[in-house]
Structures are given as C-alpha cells and as structure tokens.
Fold:
Amino acid sequence: MIRPSDMMAVVLARLIRDGETVFHGVSSHLPMVAMLLAKRLHAPHAVHLNIGGGVDPTMARQDGISSAGSNLWTDAQAAFSLADVFDLSMRGGLDVAFLSGVQFDSRGGVNASLIGDWQQPKVRLPGGAGSAVLIPTARRAILWRTKHDKRTLVRDLDFLTARGHVSDLVTPLCHFTMYQGEMLLNSIHPGADIETIANHTGFPIRYINLQRTPPPTQAEMAALQHIDPGDLRNIEFRSL
Amino acid sequence: MIRPSDMMAVVLARLIRDGETVFHGVSSHLPMVAMLLAKRLHAPHAVHLNIGGGVDPTMARQDGISSAGSNLWTDAQAAFSLADVFDLSMRGGLDVAFLSGVQFDSRGGVNASLIGDWQQPKVRLPGGAGSAVLIPTARRAILWRTKHDKRTLVRDLDFLTARGHVSDLVTPLCHFTMYQGEMLLNSIHPGADIETIANHTGFPIRYINLQRTPPPTQAEMAALQHIDPGDLRNIEFRSL
Amino acid sequence: MSKLTSLPDALKAIPDGAMLALGGNTLNRAPMTAVYELARQQKRGLRLVKTAGAMDVDLLCLAGCVHSVDAGFVSYESHFGLCPHYRKGVEQGRVQSNEHACYTVISALRASAYGLPFMPVAGLRESDLRKAHPYFATVRDPFGGEELTVVRALRPDWAIVHVQQADELGNARIDGPLYEDVLMTQAARRVLVTAEEIVPEGFFRRSEQKPQIPHFLVHSVVHQPRGASPSSCLNHYPVDEEEVASFLALPDAEALTAWLNDRGRTAR
Amino acid sequence: MSKLTSLPDALKAIPDGAMLALGGNTLNRAPMTAVYELARQQKRGLRLVKTAGAMDVDLLCLAGCVHSVDAGFVSYESHFGLCPHYRKGVEQGRVQSNEHACYTVISALRASAYGLPFMPVAGLRESDLRKAHPYFATVRDPFGGEELTVVRALRPDWAIVHVQQADELGNARIDGPLYEDVLMTQAARRVLVTAEEIVPEGFFRRSEQKPQIPHFLVHSVVHQPRGASPSSCLNHYPVDEEEVASFLALPDAEALTAWLNDRGRTAR
Structure:
C-alpha cells in the first residue's frame, strides 16, 4: 500500500529539474520534503529557497511545525530572504514556486482567499501567501493539494487569488499538467482510477496521453526515509 | 594663529545638536571630525551615520584617505547602510546632512555637477553625491567649503544640483545661515573681516545680527587633538 | 539614555486604533509575550500588519483587539491548521481582512521606508485581490511601458519585534531568519524591541556581527526571556506545541482572560 | 559545478558595450584587479554604474573603455582629488556623464532587482538633474497625492564585486561595509566575484555568518588575493597610496598599457 503522502512527495520531486531555483513557503511540508528528495536524487544542483532565507538547507534538524522555521537556516550555505526571493521572481529569475490553495479550476486558477462572496465571505481562508505574485512570475508554478474532491477541483472559483504560469497540479489521486491554458489529466497514481477521479473532480476530465504514475521506486523510498525520518511529508494528511 | 581647518571643524561641530541623526558622505573629513568632536563635547547622543554603514563609530583607527572607509565600521554599534540612510532621509527621519559643492548661491542653491553649459561642460565636477535628494529631505542641510572666493560663492549657479533645506554654509572666513530663503552672514571667523568677505563673495553680503565666531575653546582644541591626531580635518586644505 | 522599560509600560504608549507591524513569521520569532500583554491591556481597533501571521493574530482576534489584518497568510500552518478566531472575526464582520500577497505587504512597507506613497509591484496581474481592495491601483510607466499595479504604503505606528540580543540603547541583533523585521523597523513610526538577552553597552562595538536594528530607530527595549514563546526563537527554544494547543482549546474571550492572567503571574 | 576560473577568462565573457556595475565605494573594496584586466582586454563602450567611483572609473576612462558613467560622485575624495581622465573624457565629449544622486543609482538598481521599469524617488525635487537627463520622469500618485519623480531602471549586464571570502560554487561573503554590492548582484544579469580567499565547499554551512551573495546569482569566481588593491579591503589591506599616485602620474593611455603589463606580470 502506497501512502498518498509518499506518492505526492515523489511526484513533486520528479518535477524539479537539476539547477532550477525552487521556492516553497509556509504550510509546505510536502514540497519541502520533495525538494530535499530531488536534491538527493536527480537534481543535486537545484536551489532550495524558502521563507527563512537559508539557501540549500540540508535540514539535519527535523522540527515538525513550520516550513518557514530556522531549521531551514542553520546549515544553509547562503542567505536570501523572502523579500529577495520575491524580487528574484519579479525579475524573472525564479524557476519553480510551489503553491497550494483550496479551490482550483481547469484553467490554472487558484483560490486561497475565501469561500462565498468576497464582500461577505462564508469562510475566510488563510490567504494566498505569495501566490498572487509568484504564480504570474515564476517560470512554473507547481500546485499541490492533499484533498481531491468536487469542493477542491471546481468548475468556477469563488474568488480568483491568482492565475498565471501554473504548470502542474498534484493531488492524492493524480497529476494534472497544463496544456494551452487547460488542466489535462496527465497520470493516475497507483490505486486510483479514472472514474474515481472524474467523480471527485468538479471540472471535466480531459487528457491526450494518459499515463499511470510510476510508483515510488526503492531508491525514492529509501531516500525519503533518510531525509524525512520524522515523516513531515505526512503532516498535512495527519491534520486533515 | 587659528588654522581654518580647526575653526571650521569647531563651527560645524557646534551646529550639531544632541540626539540628532547626522550623515556625512565621501570627501567629508571636516564633517566627520566635527561629528566626533560634537559627540565628545556637547552632543554625546548625536547619531553618526555614514556611507560604510557603521553607526556611531569611534574611529579609533585613523585612516587618512576616505571618509567612507571601514574605519567607520569596525567599532560601530550597529549597521545602517547608505541605502538605509537615504531611505531614512526620504521618510523625514534624518536631522542633518553635511554636503559640499563647488558653487553656492545666496538662496541655498548648490552646484556640484559642472562648470559651463550642462550639454557641453567646460569642467566636469565630481557630482553632488547625495545632495540632490538629501538637501530637499533632511531637516537641515549644512554646507561647507574650504574655499571662499567669487568663483565659489556666486550670484548665479552654472547648474543647480540641489536646493532645499540648506540651513548653514561654513567657509574658512565665515558662517552664513539661511533666513527666509536667503543666505545671511551670521558670524565672521577670527582673522577675517567683512570687507574681505564681501570682496570674495559673488552675491551681496547681507546680515541682521552680525557676530564674531567664537574662536575654538581650549576644550574644543584639546578634544580635536584627541579625536583627530592624524589631522584629517586639514586634508582638504592640504590638497588645495 | 537607557530605553529599558517593562512590557506593560512600553505597551501603554500604544493607543487604541494603532497600526502595528508584528515581527516573525507564523510560529517563528513572533513577539508573543508582547501580544499577550496587548490583549491584557484590552487594546481596541488595532490594525495588524504581517506577511504571515498565526497565533499572534488569532489571539488578538479572540481578545477583541483587532480592527483589521493586512497579511498574505494567516494560519498555524499544517499542524494546527486555520486560525479559528481570525476566521470567525472576519466571517462575522468584526475583523476586516485586507488580504495581500505577502510581497505586497513587503512592497507597502518598503514604500513607507522609502518615504513613498506607493510602490509598484511587478507580479500582481490576474487576481481578484486587485478589484477587491482599494489599496491596489495602477500607474503607467512614464518611459513608454505598460500599466503597473501599485500598492499603497503601509506606515505602521509601531513595529514590535522580538530579538535574541539588544542593549539598553536599543541596538538589536537578530540571529538567523530576519523575516520582515528589519524592514518593519524602518517602515514604522516607532519600534518596540523585546529581547531574550540584554547585553552591556559597547558589546556590539566589539562584535563583527553588528545589530541590524540601530538604537535610534528604537523607542523602548524590554528584557523578555522567552518573549517569542510559544513561537520558536533560534538558539533559544522551539515551538511550544502544548502551549499553542492550550490556547486553541480556549472556548471564548473570557477563558482567554483567565489564561492570560495565569501566564502573567508566572511571567512577572 | 565549480565556477572558479581565471580573471582573463572570466572577463572575456563581457562584451564591448556591456553595462557594468562595479562594487565598493571610492577607494574602498573596488574590484581593481578586474578593472585592470578590463583595460588590458581593451573593452570598448562600457557603461559603468556605481554610486561613488574613483580610480576604477578613472582608469577605464584613460584606457578608452568607457562610453558612459551612471554615478552620483566620481572622485578620489579629498586626498587625491578629482578624477583627471574621467573629467577629460567628459569634457572632450568621449565619455557621457549620467549624473545621478547616489540614491537614484540605488533606486534604479532596486527597480531592476524588483523587476520594475522605474522606481519613484521621494527626494528629487528642485534640481537641474531632472531636466538634464532623460532617465528622470514623473508619475502621479494614483491614491490622490502629488506628482513624484521616478528614475528609470538600470539593469547592468554584469556586476563585478570583490569580497573577502567565496567558495567555488559562488557563495560570497563580504566583511564590513557592503556598499551597494549585494543590490548590484540582484540587479545585474550576471555576477563576477573576485575573492581574497576561496574557502572549502561547506565552509559557510558551518558558519553563522551566511554569505550575502548566494551561489546561484554568481557566474564566475576568481581567486584574487589583493583583488581590491590599491583600494582598501577590510581585514586585509588599506589603500595603497603609492600605487594610486603612480597611476595618477601616468601621462597617457600608452603609458597605462605598459603600467598594466608590469602589474600583469607580477600578478600572474
């Protein structure tokens, strides 16, 4: 049995290419672990940027609470603050930004702001953090969400926090990629099937070249165990 | 015989009030020494800001060449970069900026840019450094110049580098202060007289309350010797 | 010229309705003891500014201190989830949520630090944030370029930051992540520093690590060991999860008062 | 992934006509050995950017490398006085002087670093600089305020900075005054670092003093002890006054060639 957190961490890691500058923010344990995994496996020269400002942390310390804490600083090899990262993206120098949200549409739109009417919201969400400026400016914005249902993948967003350079959306069931402004189903994770996905998705499922997501390899699982013994990659699932 | 450099350092120092934030830039040995003098005597809580970014240096090291060097850093008590100082002034937080130039008019205008026509200058000067933004934004801009002649104090500037909150102009002969937009002669240094000043000034000399500049006191001279054993205050006179 | 004072005295200077920038990020180096005391003093109408807030914002919302929150993100991150009291406050119309991208908070603070009424923001394009909030507008590039989104300056009345070391004059040194703290001290009218440790005057003169916050920007200094707890403070303590959970278990504002009083007795 | 290279090779990548930001300030931590090599390679049409330049700008003007200088101040400060070759170049129309307030250089670099076409500048008001130079313009505050001066972005093709320590990857640490160096590395398209000392990979991971310049912004690293001399370098050497005087005694560009060759032979 493959845990969704392991599968998602591995899929996110595989999307990182060697040498890319990659940022994740708060509440981002899955991308944080994915980044460490990618650097350990196929992308040793990817650059790990984060809110605390430590460049390329090894995260020998495993604090569980924050993906913006000083465990991303202490063994970093340089300083590059959150403001610096944003500036980098604004001038076109950020390759990848990992971002999440609560609603996603089929055109790469993200809502992390609110449910209901924006002038009188039914649910006030945490907010998009960097999304509104990073999704339009990073070369690729990779989205992830640990829920996959019709309230999450919707036909129409209640509020458009950001739209722009979204390239991927990874859920516990599958991996979408953007093609000509539309989210196409790219691969289905082990254990899921297209009917389940369609029944849990609020927008029409379309694809051109449908694949099975390769399950985590032994090397990937071993590396995951090594870099994330505290199972931070599962923290979003534990708190569901 | 009172040296002009001693007299000028003392006059500049007396203009600094306790607790003020005070900035000087490059080529500014006289204000640099004046600042140390003021802090030692009547203004211990004045804040010494400079290009290197060291706040309140004691300048135990006496390097002669630069007033922007790291001798203003090593024993500073905090960091505040040149950009920080400019920002401070822009938001109204800088009390005093010491600035110089090559031409000055009777309305507090400064030319540090060029002699002749600006499209085809006869003499290219070093440039106003921070003048164009500091003179309009610092509470008080204090000007000094180690020359006092009709080419320096002019009726009309060849080029207006900056105008704004000039409060004082100190020369080897005298001290002008601004009153209602006009430079009035405020005090005459020992050894000078009003005829000499008038003959060496390109704009009409006007005053309302003319004083003699009190010569350096014994305490001031002793402090000068102590804080400036290398005679940095005289460097602009040596290079004339 | 010592600026050392007690936390209650320092915070008495902050009036109702003040705009406050709070240092740190989520559960990291937030000035929590000062936040507790703001709640104890029952401040009203505070306008909070932060890129990413958590228990600081949530507690002040529960205590009824908050008029508005200018932030990019308000949540405890994944482990403790959403901020219930902030949410409820916004949903019931008591708290105004001025959502920013975290970067537009930074840009708005930079505008104030640079003495400007606004700051252009390159990245803010297709987003309902622009239409929903009057602090966004556009200007045209006078050099022949396109229209740009700009954000209005945020000029906090106070910045409150917790640091590892400070001296009595107000020179303050942060170890590790700075977050937006230094910018906040430059954007705000006044600055309150709480510090784990008060070092002797002259300490920093002998150090190669100069304080990032110079004394003349700082109005009050409070010696407050564990002043960021239950958020973390590098070289001192991690997040105190039990304490966060204890707060989140409080049913209402009345319970909070008792809870804060408990902590006040042990702290003083 | 070592970016270590020789200075001649590193500078071959810089084409004629490039816009170059030079680190340091006046005779302090300027990348002088790189400047010597630029002159040796007879670059043409360089557009220099600096808040306050001195021998770096002057030498490149004498060598005929310079098209324009965007700076607030160009002089050796009081001791050695004006820059004769810069002056002559401007006065004879060979060098274009784009005078800035030092702050508008900073603002123009910030604009590039922030991905913006321009930056508003609060302080630039009554000055002929505004009318003389097309890189100044105005915009109106869309929040109902006044007109503001703005400065056009400066986006250097290269920033060249000299630091005390770097590793082979390009992580670079400056001790003491930063001047505008860090901003320059963020505003420029590419960065060349010359360093007094090359530290082993991992050195900075164990240090509490993190490099202010991260590796991924840096394209080449050159091990260049005394690379700022004759300007000063904190913890290494003061200004070499004899060397500055020796340069200032050169009668013409031909003499400079011989003088640079002398220094090239001893340096390599």
Q: What stands out?
A: Chain B touches chain D through 56 residues (CB under 8 Å). Residues 29-40 of chain B form the longest helix (12 residues).
